[in-house]
Automatic annotation (TrEMBL):
Pfam families: VIT1
Native source organism of the sequence: Solanum tuberosum
Name this polypeptide is given: Vacuolar iron transporter
Subcellular location per the Swiss-Prot or TrEMBL entry: Vacuole membrane
Region (Disordered): 49-69
Membrane-spanning intervals of the chain: 12-37, 74-97, 103-124, 136-155
Domain of life (superkingdom): Eukaryota
Family: Belongs to the CCC1 family.
Keywords noted in UniProt: Ion transport, Iron, Iron transport, Membrane, Transmembrane, Transmembrane helix, Transport, Vacuole
Membrane topology (UniProt): Multi-pass membrane protein
Amino acid sequence: MGVGAVQENVKTMIITGFAGLFAGACSMAIGEFVSVYSQLDIERAQMNRDKATGGQNREHEEGNKEQLPNPFQAAGASSIAFSLGAIVPILAAAFIANHKVRLAVIVAAVSLALVAFGVIGAFLGRSPIVKSCARVLIGGWMAMAITFGLTKLIGSTGLEI
């Protein structure tokens, strides 16, 4: 949406879309890895403190080790989830020449994808579907609107970076 705010060329939208997909997937994966690894360190430290003070028995300690978070799995899952979401607007943009129609199709395709992701998240988390879909959809619309608006503003004012 940001590129579409200032650039009508479909090739430019697709190239920058893929660049954003890869950059975002890497950023999400690295952020998730660092976050989950920090959590893992905290949990291991707590287990060591419990062990030193006699606060846990052996069976409980082994069970906790099996439930420890895996930073590599978290990073991979985050990267894949971001990529799946980011490919939707790229594919929607790829086949439409008219700029205004392309933007409308992107909004429609992304909206459908957001609803689908909301349903999947609600199902996996066993939470209310309507609340989950509304939250994901409204958040996605806000992100698209902010990105479009800020890029349009910067592009129209001729701000040089």
